[in-house]
Design a protein that fits this description.
single chain; Pseudouridine synthase; S4_RNA-bd_sf; alpha+beta; 3 domains; four-stranded antiparallel β-sheet; rRNA pseudouridine synthase activity; 6 helices; 21% helix; 17 strands; elongated; 32% strand; Alpha-Beta Plaits
Length: 240
């Protein structure tokens, strides 16, 4: 259904109807790539792509994206045939049927996204978009600062070379250390395999960031809806 553009923008949470009219008049709104300045312009929220100041606006009412803090011991599926705890029990409150965006292994906790937006999910998980993920790990042994250079230059695992985008040594003690890794690889158990290869097996692992989304103050088992400017930034990060 085609509606006035300012009404669509207001319903999407961009601002009041009057504020959205001002955005249109200033040439800051584009529909399907074309700048719109006419106040009577109509658009279809279900089919058209709308940007404000170059940022995508999520105007499709049935699409939902959620950030969940996955507890350890939960498998990254919506239904587990072995009866293990799954993601579904943590998002039952949402009316839409959601699908996990990528996976975290059973023992890893932290941020995972769920969505029913197929295009967004595809872009967030496809290797060509190189979406960065950040992890904090407690590892065995005393890590030295020189490890950052090694991992940022790259090492070779059994399934090929890998390098981290950024490595931060947060804490170093004789028995164990805390490190932070950012990388865009989606290979299975990649952080655990990297740290095992360099002699520091992972003891605990938490994903703290996925693309532009931070776990923030989410507690294990809790979730929140990604909307507004936060959702726009996420969409923009993968070229939507």
């Amino acid at each position: 259904m085609r509606e006035r553009l300012q009404k669509i923008l207001a319903h999407a949470g961009v601002g009041s109807r009057r504020a959205c009219e001002a955005l249109i008049a200033e040439g800051r709104v584009a529909v399907n790539g074309a700048v719109v300045t006419e106040m009577g312009t109509r658009a279809d929220a279900e089919r058209d792509t709308i940007h404000v100041d170059g940022m995508p606006i999520a105007v499709k009412p049935d699409l939902l994206t959620v950030a969940l803090y996955k507890p350890p011991g939960v498998v990254s599926t919506m239904d587990d045939d072995m009866g293990r705890p799954s993601l579904a029990q943590y998002v039952e409150k949402y009316e839409q049927r959601l699908y996990h965006v990528g996976r975290l292994d059973e023992d890893t906790e932290g941020l995972i996204l769920l969505s029913n937006d197929g295009e967004l999910t595809h872009r967030l998980t496809h290797p060509s978009y190189e979406v960065p993920k950040t992890y904090v790990a407690r590892v065995e042994g005393q890590v030295t600062r020189g490890l950052a250079r090694v991992l940022e230059k790259g090492i070779t695992l059994e399934d090929g070379p890998i390098r981290v985008d950024k490595f931060v040594l947060r804490e170093s003690q004789p028995r164990n250390s805390i490190v932070e890794l950012t990388l865009h690889s989606g290979r299975n158990r990649i952080v655990r395999r990297i740290m095992e290869e360099v002699g520091h097996p992972v003891m605990e692992l938490v994903r703290t960031r996925f693309a532009t989304i931070d776990a923030g103050r989410l507690r294990p088992g809790k979730s929140r809806v990604i909307a507004g400017s936060e959702l726009s930034a996420l969409m923009h990060s993968v070229g939507m």
